[in-house]
User: Which sequence fits this backbone?
């Protein structure tokens, strides 16, 4: 816009914002037109003072005029360490207006997960999963958005939002397509880095449209605004100087013109030289000088308001600034008249909350407080917050700023705040509290405990930091035996997640060696065997399986350490291809009345998810799919109920998919595995759980006959060497070799399968269903090297008979039949059908039935194979059988 703009405009900061206002109005129109329309996300980016807040205010005006519900929130420079601060501002008013029972009913299962983060429910005793809390917050907003449609969410100063809010916002923005809501986010460029910056970038990427970058006013607009404010008699030279002094910044222009009015300066060229001095008084040192001119009490009031940062009331400021109520009220009035403070919402009930007129003013006032005084005032603010009963977590942001002074009480408060942060799913906030507690420092007898707590807080987000903290803690006195063992196990888990498998094993082995025989030592031994069991490297501790079998033989399952050893023994036996009946008997002894024992559940943290995945995997690869499926489904339900997301949910969906794949429910398997892979993308590529998702998805797509899609998926997601350092079910080398054969890269496929066989042999892994490389290799070499193929087929048959499952024997007979001709091939194929008909694996049964139908030239068997393949979703098998039926050559 130019100087023709009417002085009656809603805000002077909206000059030259026609394009932005049109986009906002269009977005509101789209929202109001259809409650099933996709959501819209607008991102406004601009330096301080360019009118982002004014555009949000205008968005509110337009939306409310159209009958929309509008919720808003704002980040604060001094509030970035307060977890969920901005999302609480956004949602609390709507939730607090409900009765507690209504909010609980409305949020359903998410109430206990998202409620504590939103401050409407008490947190539990344990550590909440950040991903689960984020999912709960997304679900809460989605439900509220449907209830309050048409809904507009406004977030100002998003660059100063807390990390937890930005994590939620990025996740929510990804899912706007199926939710009719308008989200408008305003932020400055730059300002932040690291994780928060990545979340903000993800928000911008999710918008699906270019970010709106706000520019400064043109000289013409500055002149129009000057004349609209000071009168048409403002001459051109004066107007040009207004623009030059402010750089076209709308906020600075408005403030400068207000100063011109206050000083009754005539807007003519002769007075243009005075504008620079007036402008200096509105910012930085000039603002501080102007504040000091209001008097020491007003200055103290402004300082106290800057320390509080949020929830600023005259009463609270009076306590912090040690002012009487009357004097505090007078100071507030003086600061409002000086355009330093304003009333946030004059129409709200209860004590009026104050806010700084602009974040630039808040920053200038906060930075003007002498360092020592600022730290002392934060300490007083922490006491005021604590005395109000709001808890240690609410006081934490002030405690973080207090000068270290060997204060035992401060250390206790920070540890308590960290526990509260962990309970609501804010480990990064807990980390800051515990790091600050170490600066105090803690007393020698509790120093190791603080380090242990810090290591636990960083475990999910920074395993490398956890390693350092826990190693230091273990090198200090103070940890009792149980806590020391907990620290050793947590350290080994962090080493595992940091891809330091051998060091993880050595850590628990060394600690176990120094302990006498008993449950504690057995627990460490079980952890050692567990890490060795999931390690996919070719080096193996000599005699490991024998030692594990010997130790497990003494276990009756009377406690969880013994149950863990039984599970580990069962898994080792399964991977080695020992007798399936004996494996199942060992695994069953680890259960209590057929169920997981207390303390060994999917959400219990003492043992970790790896142990239970081993148990379920042992059942899955010994044809006890009913038990494996029950465990996988229980995991998925447990994580959904507890709100656990991230890696836990990735694995749950992946292994549910694995169970479907083993059953032959290929479409269901594909759906579960695609969901697992989608979640794994958020957690991070290259991790073992990512490999589990992509390996099983590629295997499932190959079983369906979708070869091109399987190859494209493998290429897109890096399903190629180098392989992960932990065991993946099924064997990724075998799956990769099968894929290469399927796309016609036979030589590479043979090489990959040979490498899979060599790696499996080095580890003693001879289960032919888990590592099926030998079977595929035999088929691939049938023409080129029939003698070697025959030897491989015999070896596969021997391994299958040792394992003794119908699936293993039936698959081995399929391989043998593929290498034979004539009636011997028919007889072997028929035997394969007999075994696989009794197997729970319907896809393999369908394949065997079709192969037998072709060899025996039997139309009924082909037709039955087609029916089975169709029920599995095995399109490739169906097409093959149909082709045979269509050809009809030699069929009976």
Assistant:
């Amino acid at each position: 816009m130019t100087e023709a703009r009417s002085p009656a405009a809603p805000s002077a900061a909206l000059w030259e914002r026609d394009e932005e206002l049109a986009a906002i109005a269009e977005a509101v129109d789209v929202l109001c037109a259809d409650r099933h329309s996709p959501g819209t996300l607008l991102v406004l980016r601009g330096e301080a003072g360019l009118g982002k807040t004014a555009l949000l205010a205008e968005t509110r005006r337009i939306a409310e005029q159209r009958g929309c519900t509008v919720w808003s929130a704002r980040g604060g420079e001094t509030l970035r360490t307060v977890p969920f601060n901005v999302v609480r501002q956004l949602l609390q008013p709507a939730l607090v207006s409900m009765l507690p029972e209504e909010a609980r009913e409305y949020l359903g299962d998410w109430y206990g997960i998202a409620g504590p983060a939103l401050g409407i429910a008490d947190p539990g005793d344990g550590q909440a999963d950040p991903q689960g809390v984020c999912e709960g917050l997304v679900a809460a907003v989605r439900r509220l958005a449907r209830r309050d449609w048409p809904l507009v969410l406004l977030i100002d100063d998003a660059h100063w939002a807390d990390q937890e809010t930005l994590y939620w916002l990025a996740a929510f923005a990804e899912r706007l397509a199926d939710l009719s809501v308008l989200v408008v986010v305003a932020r400055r460029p730059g300002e932040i880095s690291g994780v928060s910056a990545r979340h903000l970038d993800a928000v911008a990427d999710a918008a699906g449209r270019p970010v709106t970058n706000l520019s400064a006013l043109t000289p013409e607009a500055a002149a129009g605004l000057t004349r609209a404010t000071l009168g048409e008699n403002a001459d051109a030279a004066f107007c040009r100087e207004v623009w030059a002094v402010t750089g076209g910044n709308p906020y600075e222009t408005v403030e400068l013109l207000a100063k011109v009015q206050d000083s009754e300066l005539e807007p003519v060229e002769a007075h243009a030289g005075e504008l620079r001095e007036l402008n200096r008084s509105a910012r930085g040192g000039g603002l501080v000088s102007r504040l000091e001119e209001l008097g020491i009490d007003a200055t103290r009031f402004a300082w106290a308001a800057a320390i509080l940062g949020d929830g600023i009331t005259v009463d609270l400021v009076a306590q912090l600034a040690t002012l009487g109520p009357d004097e505090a009220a007078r100071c507030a009035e003086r600061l409002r008249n000086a355009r330093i403070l304003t009333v946030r919402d004059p129409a709200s009930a209860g004590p009026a909350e104050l806010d700084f007129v602009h974040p630039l003013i808040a920053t200038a006032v906060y930075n003007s407080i002498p360092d020592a005084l600022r730290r002392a005032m934060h300490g007083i603010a922490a006491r005021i917050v604590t005395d109000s009963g709001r808890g240690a977590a609410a006081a934490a942001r002030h405690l973080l700023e207090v000068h270290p002074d060997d204060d035992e009480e401060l250390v206790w408060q920070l540890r308590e705040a960290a526990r509260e942060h962990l309970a609501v799913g804010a480990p990064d906030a807990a980390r800051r509290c515990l790091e600050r507690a170490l600066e105090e420092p803690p007393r020698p007898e509790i120093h190791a405990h603080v380090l242990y707590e810090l290591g636990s807080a960083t475990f999910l987000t920074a395993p490398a930091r956890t390693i350092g903290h826990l190693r230091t803690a273990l090198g200090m006195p103070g940890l009792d035996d149980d806590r020391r063992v907990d620290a050793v196990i947590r350290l080994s888990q962090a080493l595992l997640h940091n891809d330091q498998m051998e060091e993880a094993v050595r850590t628990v082995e060394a600690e176990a060696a120094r302990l006498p025989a008993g449950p504690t030592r057995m627990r460490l031994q079980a952890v050692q065997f567990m890490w060795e069991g999931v390690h996919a490297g070719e080096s193996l501790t000599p005699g490991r399986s024998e030692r594990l079998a010997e130790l497990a033989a003494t276990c009756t399952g009377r406690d969880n350490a013994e149950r863990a050893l039984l599970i580990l023994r069962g898994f080792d036996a399964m991977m080695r291809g020992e007798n399936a009946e004996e494996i199942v008997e060992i695994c069953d002894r680890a259960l209590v009345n057929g169920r997981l024992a207390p303390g060994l559940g999917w959400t219990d943290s003492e043992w970790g998810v790896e142990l239970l995945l081993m148990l379920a995997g042992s059942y899955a690869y010994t044809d006890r799919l009913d038990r494996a499926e029950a465990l996988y489904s229980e995991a998925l339900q447990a994580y959904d109920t507890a709100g656990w997301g991230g890696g836990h949910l990735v694995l749950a969906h992946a292994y549910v998919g694995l169970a479907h794949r083993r059953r032959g429910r290929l479409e269901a398997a594909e759906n579960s595995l695609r969901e697992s892979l989608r979640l794994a993308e958020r957690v991070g590529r290259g991790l073992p759980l990512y490999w589990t998702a992509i390996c099983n998805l590629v295997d499932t797509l190959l079983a369906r006959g979708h070869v091109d899609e399987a190859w494209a998926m493998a290429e897109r997601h890096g399903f190629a060497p180098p392989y992960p350092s932990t065991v993946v079910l099924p064997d990724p080398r075998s799956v990769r070799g099968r894929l290469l054969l399927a796309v016609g890269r036979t030589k590479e496929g043979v090489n990959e399968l040979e490498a899979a066989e060599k790696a499996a042999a080095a580890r003693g892994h001879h289960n032919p269903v888990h590592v099926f490389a030998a079977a595929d290799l035999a088929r691939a070499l049938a023409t080129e090297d029939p003698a070697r193929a025959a030897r491989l087929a015999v070896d596969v048959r021997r391994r299958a008979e040792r394992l003794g499952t119908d699936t293993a024997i039936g698959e081995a007979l399929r391989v043998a039949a593929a290498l034979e001709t004539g009636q011997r091939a028919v007889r072997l194929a028929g035997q394969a059908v007999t075994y696989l008909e009794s197997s729970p694996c319907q896809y393999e049964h369908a394949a065997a039935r079709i192969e037998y139908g072709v060899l025996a030239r039997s139309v009924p068997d082909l037709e039955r194979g087609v029916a089975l393949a169709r029920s599995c979703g095995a399109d490739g098998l169906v097409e093959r059988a149909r082709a045979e039926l269509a050809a009809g050559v030699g069929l009976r």
Summary: The first strand starts at residue 40 and ends at 45. Confidence is low (pLDDT under 50) at residues 1-10.
